[in-house]
Amino acid sequence: MKMISANKHPTKFTWDYWYYFDHDEKLFHIFNLNAKKSLAKKQQHHFSSQVGYATTRDFVTINWIKDDVLVANPSGWDNSSIWTGDIVKSNNGFVMFYTSRDKHDDDGMTQNIGCAFSNDFLKWERIPNVRIQPEPAHYLTQTSENDGTIHAWRDPFLFREGDYAYMLVSAKANDLPAGRNACVALLRSEPHDLLHWNVLPPICKPGWYGEMEVPQLYLDKDGRHQLIFSVGEKWDYADDTQQQGGLQSIDVTQGRKVEFPIVRLPQSAGIYACRVIPEMGGAIIGFDIKVGGFVKCDGLPDFKYMNRDFTDFKQHWIS
């Protein structure tokens, strides 16, 4: 498989990312987690991560613009490092959902989802009173004592059907054994509303994984719903994957029995937290596990986006 690496950030280790694509300008507005390279060498970068902003047309030549467009808020619940999010365009600007933690609550690792608004990609203002938390009827609300990984309620991904927005979230089910309780949560908004959310049962709860990270939903050539996610090799216990981890997919078409996952790109390829980019013919793009930055490789040309157009959601974001 052909892989092309991007020019690396000159001073930062960059990893998970999300983006908005400007169809008129043919330009990707990228948001990425970043921290000092020295922290990545000690595996401490996750606890100092902030959101940076860059642009690109091909995910090879990167215009690194600003490293700290969204950082931890010392006076808010999101006072720890910022983790993976999503961005969509609304009627009058851009809305970013992001992951953070309150280092004063529980064990300091319990994740929630916040929201911010911007008109220019550079200046983001947090939207007050938006703190999306797991529903204990379906999901763990903090780290389980016997679990091998920390609590999960992160990596939001949005799409819509009709008047409703839906959100996927990397989560942990409360009725599966520790270590195999990873699932993908499903949330639904109020009609034409991106601020008020109802937590639903999981869209996928296979009982095979310790983590299901950076979930995304696509339509394949047959119109089936394909859930894409990333899993580390050591947290992959599915019968059909030979513990390859990496980028995998599961058909989650409503009413269809989940039978097996498909490994789209094993972790041994050296990249992680991949996304399928329909605007580039379905290219798979993730970050280089060792040195950060983007790596582009052959992808899934038949995968198309769910509807992600929220421009008719007419809300007043900031009072």
Written account of the structure:
It contains 1 helix and 21 strands. With 319 residues, the chain is mainly beta. The radius of gyration is 18 Å and the shape is globular.
Shape: globular
- Quickly count the helices: 1
Count of individual beta strands: 21
For the biggest β-sheet, the strand order reads: 17-16-15-14-21
Low-confidence stretches: none
SSE succession? EEEHEEEEEEEEEEEEEEEEEE
| Global Rg | 18 Å
Mean pLDDT: 94
Describe how the helices and strands are arranged:
Elements: E1 3-5, E2 12-22, E3 27-36, H1 37-41, E4 50-56, E5 62-70, E6 83-89, E7 94-101, E8 111-118, E9 125-126, E10 153-161, E11 164-172, E12 182-189, E13 197-204, E14 213-219, E15 225-231, E16 246-251, E17 262-265, E18 271-277, E19 283-288, E20 294-297, E21 304-305
Antiparallel strand pairs: 1-20, 2-3, 3-4, 4-5, 6-7, 7-8, 8-9, 10-11, 11-12, 12-13, 14-15, 14-21, 15-16, 16-17, 18-19, 19-20
Structure characteristics:
1 helix, mainly beta, single chain, Tachylectin-2, Chain A, 5-stranded antiparallel beta sheet, 2% helix, 319 residues
Short description:
By secondary structure, the protein is mainly beta. The protein has a domain of 214 residues: Tachylectin-2, Chain A (5 Propeller).
